[in-house]
Every structure is written in structure tokens, then in C-alpha cells.
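Quick check before the chapter quiz. The format below is the same one you will see on the exam, so make sure you can read both the input and the output lines.
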Amino acid sequence: MSEIPHAEIPHAEIPHAEIPHPEIAALLARLADAWNGGDATAYAALFTEDADYITFDGTHTRGREAIESTHRWLFDGPLKGSTMATGGNATVKPLADGAVLVIAAGGTAVDGLHRPSTVSFTAVRTPEGWRFASFQNTRVAS
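Here is the expected output.
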């Protein structure tokens, strides 16, 4: 299995069109747009009601409501004004009808310091459209 290259370019330059699944590329773009706008409601809306969300430090958040409240606190506090890069060099692997695994280079920038990550998502087709059912962020060691 080859290693996924890590995003070393600003978010605006990540070519989402390279992702082989257009709906997933759009979902990743909406995720970054919500983060970059500091919009916790829009960010959480991209997850299923019962989503699992695991941060770089192992914190496990369960459910859309908890994802929203956590991100509202982050966007109003320690991550205010931060930016997200996601979707770079993403791979999309079908798991079953209406379910895919997404692995991508990503990361955030806070006060000009880029913190690269490798992120994984399970995306599922729902009546609302594609949503993330799980998220795992692994910070890339420097």
C-alpha cells in the first residue's frame, strides 16, 4: 500500500476535481467551507445524526449535536479564524452500496502555523444526500 502524500499547499490550491467521486469531492469542499467560515451548524450538518468523530488527540465525540456544540466552542475560541485544507490527494474506496471510505491529506492552519493531518471518513448515502458517518484525524509527525 502506498503512502498518501500530505497537503503542503494552501486549501485554495487543492484540486478537489482529482477526487474520483464528485459527490464526495463536493462534500469535502463543503466541510472545508464550513470550517473556514467558522460555521459549526453547517459543519455538523455534513455528518449523520449518530456520527463518530475522533480528533487528533483521541477525543471521541458522538452525534451531530455534540459535533456542532464542540465546533461552536472551537470556532469561537481556540480555533477562531483557523483554516482547513482537506481533500488533497484523496482516495475513495467503495465499501458497500451507498458507503465509501475516504482517506485524504488535510490539516488546519492556526495563526499561520500549518498542522498537516491524514484524515479518514466513512461517507454514507442518506435521504439528505452524502454525509459522513465517521471521522478520524491523525496529525502528521514533524
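If your answer matched, good. The chain is about 25% helix and 45% strand.
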